[in-house]
Amino acid sequence: MRRTPTRFSRRLRATLVAMAIAATSGTTVAAAGPAQAVPGKDTTGLTKDTNQFKGVNWADPRDNFADDPIVLSGLSTTDSYAKTYAKASRVISGFRANLGANTVRLPINPYTVNGSYWKSYRGVIDAASDKGFKVILSYWEGIGPRKDGFIDDTTTYWPMWNTVVKAYKNDKRVYFEPMNEPHGYTDTEWADIAAKWLNTYRHVPRNRVFVSGAGYNDHVTSVCADPRLKGTYLTLHHYGFWKEYATYDQWVADLKVRIGDCANRTVADEFGSPMTTGFDYNKPTPDNNFINYLQAVTDTFRELKMGSVYWPGLRTDDTYSLQTLVGDPARPRLVTTNQSGADRLAWAWGRGKPVRP
Q1: Which long-range contacts (CB under 8 A, 24 or more apart) does 227-232 make?
Q2: Which residue among 122, 134, 181, 218 has its CA within the 20 to 30 Å range from the CA of 242?
Q3: Could you tell me the pTM of the whole model?
């Protein structure tokens, strides 16, 4: 299966983290522990669950890690605001028509926000919001030695957020995720940074902030337990490549131990499986790890009434991409790469028919 080097290395590191999580919880990698995730008590400022977030990621072909402006698949740095807005409107409409999505997660970095491209990039955010989409803006780190799970440069990070928050603090459809996969920090260090973000932007309602799970966003239990982060949503990442093989039941257990009793605050804003390899996710296939995985997590998201944001809805040359661009690049259209994968999203989001082993 095709992988870009950046994505592969990130996923490889995530495998190691998953093994570490399993070890500390007293489980094996093949089968996570018996902990069960149940909806917890209502949290001030939040809804009783998170299933209003039904979305996809729209990504740069480079996997969003960049030391220059992030350019989403199908867009260009030479596009004006108007051209970006027009293209983005068509892509967002495709996400809704083809998948039934109402949420899009978008990457930002200081090069995108603090420079001249910000004016054009805002066309994506504005187009999505104008079409009624919820928009999650998440900070991505750079490449090479910068790709280490730490904020690259605080002298550009905070001005970036100053600009973004100022521009969208009054748009109730826009949500802020201080960092994607903060794996360079310990659980406590990351919670400290998230608390600092909340204190810095006290005027932003907490129910418009997504605090990433610790590590590779691979567990939310530590941030959920921190009282300083009360009232925020939490985000979890979960992938089938973290195990060479697991059964359906083992994947359910693995996911639930990472959520703990925090399902009512948690949105899975990255999860995914190969979509261009011909897998049929509507057919129980117990010897196929990825089919076991996707059926298990989408069943669990539905059961726990959790929001979920697929990785990626659109990313050029990614075998996981559920949509692909066709037609005139100036007037892009989207087509679905795997209808059974789209069916699993629909099921996770509360529609469709069940598929169980």
Answers
A1: 228/191, 228/194, 228/195, 228/198, 229/191, 229/194, 229/195, 229/198, 230/43, 230/44, 230/206, 231/43, 231/44, 231/45, 231/46, 231/206, 231/207, 232/194, 232/198, 232/206, 232/207, 232/265
A2: 134
A3: 0.88
